[in-house]
Specification:
The structure holds two protein chains of two kinds. Chain A is mainly alpha-helical. Chain A has eleven helices and two strands; from the N terminus they run ααααββααααααα. By secondary structure, chain B is of the alpha/beta class. Chain B folds into two domains: 192 residues, Response regulator (Rossmann fold), CATH 3.40.50.2300; 127 residues, Response regulator (Rossmann fold), CATH 3.40.50. The chains are: A mainly alpha, B alpha/beta.
Chain lengths: 292, 430
């Protein structure tokens, strides 16, 4: 194993991790503000990919699909929040958890009914179909570099939105003390609605970004959901920077394990989770007491 | 007054319920039991010849399972049109095994015990074939296995009741390995799915490779159901192979090929799949699979008279073209049913005698039933993916590897049988 291969391995780990980051961000932002554990996140990821399939079938253009799919899933998230989640606010955390848990199976069946169970072909746009030489040493798929870039941009946009805008300030204040924010005459219901939509849109974006890399089939969100929960828990429930760091750590851990002992590649993220939780029970950046 | 009424009503209700319950149970069980008994007794003598057909209609292999069913339906329609079997109509009893071994065994047991099937076929997945074969052996029902397995024709699983129409991983790898060894350079790398299917394919290629002095430059085993193979690629590239064998199946194959293409592996090495499936190719798309080669038992565009007849009849009945699994089912069921006609009996020994050593050509060229293990000797085709011009027009046949003179088969001794005698193990004296 020479240095080039090792460097390439780190790079594949990064691209693997970025997909985790994108999904974990959505999951984490919803949990941080609404304390809703969204079990339908994996199904929304899958719907994002299928929305992409449909838009491409209609328009033949990946770029339109890349914009439309997250909007569609975001809009769907808004409907779900208004229609299903909202009546459950103020109740135990298990209520929305069970609701979204059931919702994911309904979403799964809907796709099975309309698209069937076989894989849907999905190719990267022509512009990004060729591998690119990196540091003149190894070829890396340009599409994966694009995914890394999009994720970084999303992270920056989210950061600016939360830290530098008024709305972001309200959201942050809402996570600390929703009662106080309400007392200031701000409608928290609208904020929660918006945040659920943003979280869902991120899942949809993850779905369409993953579609040209992985095969598109109805159960594609199930394993992804489990892995994302691990990422969110390790990062600390509700912490965005935690989700980013933990996503990258998990991608790298999985890539490096594959290099030395591939049979363990599936399990290693759970080992990392166990170790992190033993040392820091609320995750890397988690606030203690959020779940109590 | 009202109390009395209430009581009365309750009494009445109770009476009626108990009445219905008891009479219902008694008559119901008598009727059901009686019919059951009568039907079973009759099934042996008159009425249709029943063929049990458990297949994974739900789950990841549903596409292939539906193809199996379509092939079976065509075979039975043709046989019924030609007068049936022993002068009786043939009836196909399809069941869903959900791609689970226990479910498959249960469905098979039910088919035998309550439906009274005379013959069995179906199943897709090696371990479920073994489970169903076990049930058939216990009850002395001939079973025509129609998907890949090495064990089913091997001691201790094989028996006089067991027939294997499909290729097995051994034949597949010997044929594909031979083609690749002759055509490409010597450095071979294996990406192996970490369970029986992957191991058997990789072992088979290694065995064939040794004959040609191949250099085994590495192997990566991946867990079943891996969705991202990118982390395997640096190690593969570092080994600088000429050929990469992608020894996995279904979604794993789609993902591995898709990602290998993205990383530009095809410019440096030839990608080879032991079995290249229509559903994987359709799910992965033309670009990903472009230039990938692999083995298959049958491809519908092949130029052979019986193949053309089969494809035309299939298209007429189902409005689409068949894939490998329809071919297996069609040919296997035709063999089993025509053997009953030749034997003029449903006796398992007579059926075996009518099949063993027979040369036949149902849909793709000459095949031969080896007496010692009931394995069908056949040719293997090497196909290459291409861009489709019509539905299912996705491969071209680039070579035929002849299966003549048992050259692709394991020896009879290797599978635990006497080369000079037809297989009689497991025979139940009735």
């Amino acid at each position: 194993m020479d240095a080039t291969a090792l460097l390439m391995q780190l790079f594949t780990g990064l691209s693997l991790g970025m997909l985790y980051v994108l999904l974990a961000l959505g999951l984490s932002i919803i949990f941080g503000l609404l304390t809703v554990v969204n079990f339908a996140h994996g199904a929304m990821f899958m719907w994002g990919a299928y929305a992409g399939v449909s838009v491409i079938a209609l328009t033949g253009n990946f770029w339109i699909a890349l914009i439309v799919a997250p909007l569609v899933i975001g809009g769907y998230g808004l409907i779900v929040e208004r229609g299903l989640i909202r009546p459950l606010y103020g109740r135990d955390i298990n209520y929305p958890l069970l609701l979204t848990f059931g919702l994911q199976f309904i979403m799964l069946e809907i796709v099975r009914i309309f698209y069937g169970t076989s894989d849907q072909p999905f190719k990267a746009p022509d512009l990004l179909s060729m591998p690119i030489e990196i540091f003149g040493t190894f070829a890396f798929p340009s599409y994966r570099l694009f995914v890394i870039a999009v994720t970084i941009i999303i992270c920056i946009v989210l950061w600016v939105f939360l830290e530098k805008t008024n709305l972001g300030m309200i959201i942050r204040a809402g996570t600390r003390d929703p009662l106080m924010v309400r007392a200031l005459g701000i409608d928290m219901g609208r904020i929660w609605w918006l945040v659920f939509g943003i979280g869902s849109a991120l899942a949809g974006l993850g779905g369409i970004l993953a579609a040209p890399i992985r095969s598109v089939f109805p159960e594609m969100g199930i394993t992804m959901l489990v892995e994302c929960f691990v990422v969110v828990v390790v990062g600390g429930m509700g912490s965005l920077s935690g989700a980013i760091l933990s996503g990258i750590i998990m991608g790298e851990a999985s890539a490096i394990t594959t290099l030395f002992y591939p049979q363990m590649a599936d399990i290693v993220i759970f080992l990392v989770m166990a170790v992190v939780l033993l040392i820091r029970p609320s995750g890397l950046f988690g606030r203690a007491g959020l779940l109590e | 007054m009202s109390e009395e009424k209430n009581e009365k009503g309750q009494d009445k209700g109770l009476d009626r319920r108990t009445f219905i319950k008891t009479t219902g149970i008694v008559t119901g069980s008598a009727l059901l039991g009686g019919f059951h008994f009568v039907r079973r007794a009759h099934a042996q003598q008159t009425g249709p010849i029943k063929l049990g057909f458990p297949i994974p209609l739900t789950g990841p292999y549903a596409f292939e399972a539906k193809d199996q069913q379509a092939g079976a339906e065509l075979a039975i329609a043709q046989i019924n049109a030609a007068g049936g079997v022993l002068g009786r109509k043939v009836e196909l009893l399809v069941r869903d095994d959900k791609l689970k071994a226990d479910e498959g065994a249960r469905r098979a047991k039910e088919l035998i015990e309550s439906e009274g099937v005379h013959l069995m076929s179906g199943i897709l997945a090696a371990h479920i074939q073994l489970a169903v074969n076990e049930q058939c052996k216990l009850q002395g029902i001939p079973y025509m296995s129609i998907s890949q397995s090495n064990e089913i024709t091997m001691r201790p699983d094989n028996s006089i009741y067991t027939y294997h129409e499909a290729l097995d991983p051994h034949q597949t790898t010997q044929a594909v390995g031979e083609y690749v060894a002759k055509k490409y350079k010597k450095r071979w790398y294996f990406l192996t799915s970490d369970y029986a299917y992957g191991w058997q394919m990789t072992d088979g290629f290694r065995r064939k490779g040794k004959e040609y002095g191949i250099m085994d430059v590495g192997e990566s085993k991946h867990p079943l159901g891996t969705s991202d193979f990118s982390a395997y690629i640096p190690r593969i590239l570092a080994a600088k192979p000429d050929v990469l064998f992608v020894d996995n199946f279904g979604k794993d194959q789609i993902n591995a090929i898709k990602q290998a293409t993205d990383f530009g592996l095809k410019k440096k090495m030839q990608l080879v799949c032991p079995i290249l499936l229509m559903s994987s190719r359709l799910g992965g798309g033309a670009e990903s699979f472009d230039g990938v080669i692999g083995g298959c038992s049958f491809y519908w565009e092949m130029n052979h008279p019986t193949a053309k007849e089969f494809v035309a009849a299939f298209q007429k009945m189902h409005g689409r073209s068949p894939i490998d699994y329809a071919g297996y089912a069609y040919s296997g069921i035709k063999e089993l049913l025509s053997a009953v006609n030749r034997a003029n009996s449903l006796d398992a020994e007579a059926i075996a005698a009518a099949i063993e050593g027979r040369t036949y050509d149902n849909y793709k060229g000459n095949q031969w039933w080896r007496p010692c293990d009931h394995q069908s000797q056949q040719d293997v085709f090497i196909i290459k993916s291409k861009k489709e011009k019509a539905q299912y027009d996705v491969f071209e046949i680039i070579a035929k590897v002849s299966g003549d003179k048992e050259r692709l088969l394991r020896t009879c001794t290797e599978v635990g049988q006497d080369p000079n005698k037809p297989i009689r193990s497991g025979l139940i004296k009735k």
